[in-house]
Input
Amino acid sequence: GAGVSQSPSNKVTEKGKDVELRCDPISGHTALYWYRQSLGQGLEFLIYFQGNSAPDKSGLPSDRFSAERTGGSVSTLTIQRTQQEDSAVYLCASSSRTGRNEQFFGPGTRLTVL
Amino acid sequence: AQRVTQPEKLLSVFKGAPVELKCNYSYSGSPELFWYVQYSRQRLQLLLRHISRESIKGFTADLNKGETSFHLKKPFAQEEDSAMYYCALRQYGGSQGNLIFGKGTKLSVKP
Output
């Protein structure tokens, strides 16, 4: 079946603009994660959704970042008033409750803030 | 503090040589440890996890709780092993908690 998909694959924006990044998890996966991959910083956890529970937002770096997950499926990560330090690859992952609970990653969205 | 440390940013070896990618962790609870790999122009994928005690693509990793380490080893490196490797942990039995990643080690296997 199809894996995790993300769009757009690349996004270039100007400082101060808002951006929306989309993630389509694997069908049937109840858990969805957002991570940020910055040069020299590795992967940082941002936010985690599990079913209908309140999301774990503990990794969001500032209140400019927010995310929602509609209908327990598609998720959108929104960054308001983008800054140059927001430039990174944003990765989405999903996992199921059953089996190995392995997190399957999407290809990422490369965000460049000019 | 919960932390994963990969001391080497870059590791370069020749084909056929043994390779060891180091990973140390700091965690107050009982962690579950993972190695993820990202080949060039491919997405991040799970390589192995400590609870499975398996060998994948010739790689093994043993959890050493005394030394808080989870080093990744392969006795004979191949050129196709060249990739970015990330060590990660989460709460053991935490089911679906987020992963805490190290900063990664780039492995380059030369012919």
